[in-house]
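sorry for the late reply, my laptop died twice this morning and i had to redo everyting from scratch. anyway the thing you sent over, i finally got around to it. pasting the sequence first so we're on the same page, its 208 residues, then the predicted structure underneath. double check i copied it right bc i was rushing
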Amino acid sequence: MTPLARLLEAALFSSARPVPLSDIKSMGLDLATSDSDITEALAELRDHYDDDGHGVELVEVGGGWQILTRPEYTETIERAQLAARPQRLSAAALETLAIVAYRQPLGRAEIEEIRGVGCGQMLKSLHERELIEVVGRGEGMGRPLLYGTTPLFLEQFALRHLGELPRADELAVALRDPNAPVPSIENLPPALEQEAADAGSPYFETAR
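ok and here's the structure:
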């Protein structure tokens, strides 16, 4: 590998969170190093892991780059308690989080109007998990707090940006009533087949 690719490998390996391009550029790189140089070095590092069959991979997630264990090894590593298990969300929490993700920025009253139930405690819980944050204040009486998702939300759901959220028809499958009859999984996108098979479970697990 090139010296720049090796440097990026060391930096990403030492970080517990995705590293954005802006942080990579602030690492004291040679002034002649351009964005395209960094992009090429990242591609070289990604190909190195892929071509040699490493147990880790370089992924773009949550607005940055991160070295992660390949998904096929995640369950074994968790079972051996070598890494923290991912956060588990109840169906109600996932529903609230989805509303924030798709409608952000929005306030508590709008969320409760959509869900039809109070969600103050749910918002507090999601905020404590750093999956949502206050992004501003709305107009009108009391200038209510407005909520949006965080970079950790993108990281936990293995998204590079909000544009990668599932389409509305895919979301309907993920959030349907767990007591409802299980629909046929034929013709579903592969990523949703497992969720369809787990329709009886009240919980869904975040991506990583």
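Confidence is low (pLDDT under 50) at residues 182-208.
thats about all i looked at so far, will dig more tmrw
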